[in-house]
Design goal:
Structural class of chain B: alpha+beta
Number of strands of chain B: 8
Largest interface: A-B, 34 and 48 residues
Strand content of chain A: 5-15%
Number of helices of chain B: 4
Number of strands of chain A: 2
Oligomer: heterodimer
Order of helices and strands of chain B: EEHHEEEEEEHH
Largest sheet of chain B: 8 strands, antiparallel
Radius of gyration of chain A: 22 Å
Radius of gyration of chain B: 16 Å
Order of helices and strands of chain A: HHHHEEH
Shape of chain A: elongated
Strand order of the largest sheet of chain A: 1-2
Number of helices of chain A: 5
Chain lengths: 110, 161
């Protein structure tokens, strides 16, 4: 849960969202990620660092390469938070109906 | 006879608009959103949670602080500030959840309009960016709201029985 604010910030950038969308299809190297964008590999690396710091991606070492993949635990934290928020909203209004019924005398013809 | 059903639509890149009808006049619905003793009865989230702390300083610039507890040591809070208040028709406020890290600020404008003998509530949320909203919607918000319709029908059926 501690990564939520950083995760939202990381996902506020369209390039980083595109990188996340690409990684959703599978692991990729910096070079592979840089290809579809008109960007240098160092520029892509900086975006990857932001995603990594936010807990959204993980990197492993393979020789001189450091392929990236999605950190499903990091993405899960966001979904859990949103699911709780959403559930709270739905339940609250059902409950408010009952509270309002108690506030408003029923059966009074108006 | 108007339906109580909730609707949820998106607007532009960063807005979510929720509408909900209530079988009570705007004054009652407005008070239920601003008076701590009433807010504590319904703004509780999942079953089993309570709101032991409810501070609502109902004036422009006034602070909002809600603290929830599950009675087993679990809890989280929301803080915010009122921006504009028009009894009993409009509330504008900013809020953020603390989980414990703060979530992005949600700017919320809530309108209460007479609707027959009840109220049509329109809540317009403005999130800081498109990604935040996309993530909210991707979480299945629509699906969950559908489920709430079903629960609502049950509550109404019981109330009318």
């Amino acid at each position: 849960m501690q990564h939520i604010d950083a995760a939202f910030f990381a996902l506020s950038d369209p390039t980083r969202r595109a990188i996340v969308a690409r990684l959703a299809r599978g692991e990729a190297t910096v070079k592979e990620l840089a290809e579809p964008f008109a960007m240098s590999q160092p520029a892509v690396s900086r975006h990857l660092q932001v995603l990594h710091d936010a807990g959204l991606i993980v990197r492993r070492v393979e020789g001189t390469k450091r392929p990236c993949s999605l950190n499903t635990a990091g993405l899960g934290a966001i979904e859990r938070w949103l699911a709780e928020l959403h559930q709270a909203l739905s339940r609250n209004y059902d409950r408010l109906d009952d509270v309002l019924a108690a506030m408003t005398p029923k059966g009074n013809p108006t | 006879m108007s339906s109580n059903k909730m609707t949820l639509v998106t607007e532009g890149d960063t807005h979510i608009v929720v509408t909900r009808r209530f079988k009570a006049p705007p004054e009652a619905v407005y008070r239920a959103h601003t008076e701590p003793a009433i807010v504590q009865q319904w703004m509780l989230g999942p079953d089993g949670w309570t709101m032991p702390v409810c501070i609502s300083d109902v004036r422009p610039g006034g602070k909002i602080r809600y603290e929830w507890s599950n009675g087993q040591g679990g809890g989280f809070s929301l803080t915010g500030e009122y921006v504009e208040l028009q009894p009993f028709s409009k509330i504008v406020h900013v809020e953020r959840m603390h989980l414990p890290d703060p979530t992005p600020d949600n700017h919320v404008e809530t309108h209460f309009e007479p609707d027959g003998e009840g109220t049509l509530m329109t809540m317009r949320m403005t999130l800081p960016d498109a990604a935040t909203r996309a993530a909210m919607l991707a979480s299945g918000m629509d699906k969950g709201m559908e489920a709430s319709y079903a629960r609502l029908e049950e509550v109404q059926a019981r109330a009318l029985a």
